[in-house]
Amino acid sequence: MNLRRAKAFAVICCIFTSATFGLTISSNAFENPRQASTVRIHSGEQHGSGVIIKESQSGYLVVTNEHVLSDDGLHCIESSNGGRYEGVLVPLANNKEDLALLWFKSQALKERVATLSSEEEEIGEPIKLVTATGYPATKNYVEREGLTIPLLSESLEGGYTLTYTSQIDKGMSGGGVFDEDDRLIGINAAHQEPLWDANWKYQSGKPVTIKMTQKINRLALGLPKERIIFWVESLNMANLDLTKSARENNNCLEDQNNKSSIKKPSLN
Fold first, then answer.
1. What's residue 249's pLDDT?
2. Nearest to 163 by CA among 171, 153, 172
3. 46, 114, 192, 218: which is deepest, by most CB within 10 A?
């Protein structure tokens, strides 16, 4: 058995164990690049995760899911090194995908930017080892290993095409999906076995068959890096002055004591 197959077998065993006993994989390395670029987001009464993907206009761009953000206009971002920022929603024209971009003004702290995978899918290796990251509600940062399972030849509504076996909990939406080299290949969007009746449709409007729905519901869903790159590259940053939208006072600092703060994770 070669090293790649051995590692894949080990992850499969871990997935089975986690699914059976409810175990999670937590990082105890505060400086690891996956954790350093993954943030917690509080938006109104909603909670989710995000990933810092670019340094821009004396600040940073964060990618997350649109469904993570509330309509009240106050989006608070907590970074892994303790930074707390008020996020500005970046306008995305004609966006029909479950993807949103936030920008926050950089303060004294230097934040870590995720490295996006620039390689195309390797021929002959459709199944890859991945690590999903995020902040489950009321919990510290976690990492969940899994495998990509190629399933969809057409995007679902919301832009979902990434399917994988990592166990995703509520609050991890918008968190990263990283490859073995710590490169971002997508973001979490939906967990397995949704509590609601998932009447999936493709982006074309065509309904998903019952058999395909049964398969989809057994996997985590995400948006691939290609959609992140598309929206970032579509921004005309020269004509988009996000600093004007930033409030003079950081309102996210006012209720800092009422929100859960990020702590150095420990093993459960």
1. 66
2. 153
3. 114
Cβ atoms of 223 and 162 closer than 8 Å: yes
Fold of 33-114: Thrombin, subunit H (2.40.10)
Beta bridge partners of 184: 116, 178
Residue type, 255: D
What are the angstrom distances between the C-alpha of 65 and each of 3, 101, 147, 190? Answer: 35, 8, 21, 10
Cβ neighbors of 167 (< 8 A, separation 6 or more) are 15, 18, 19, 24, 132, 144, 146, 191, 192, 220
- Report pLDDT digits (tens) over 145-161: 999 999 999 999 999 99
Cα angle value 69/190/185 (rounded, 5°): 90
Strand locations in 110-218, DSSP E?
Answer: 115-116, 129-134, 142-147, 162-164, 176-178, 183-190
C-alpha 44/C-alpha 57 separation (Å) is 26
One-letter amino acid identity for 265?
P
Domain positions in the chain: 3-29+115-229, 33-114
Structure tokens at 9: 């077998």
> How distant, in Å, are the alpha carbons of 43, 148, 159, 162, 206 from that of 187?
18, 13, 11, 9, 24
C-alpha distance from residue 53 to each of 36, 114, 231 (Å): 11, 5, 12
Place of tokens 């509600």: 137
CB contact at 8 A, 216 and 198: yes
Tell me the pLDDT tens digit for each residue of 85-98: 999 999 998 899 99
Fold match between domain 3-29+115-229 and domain 33-114: yes
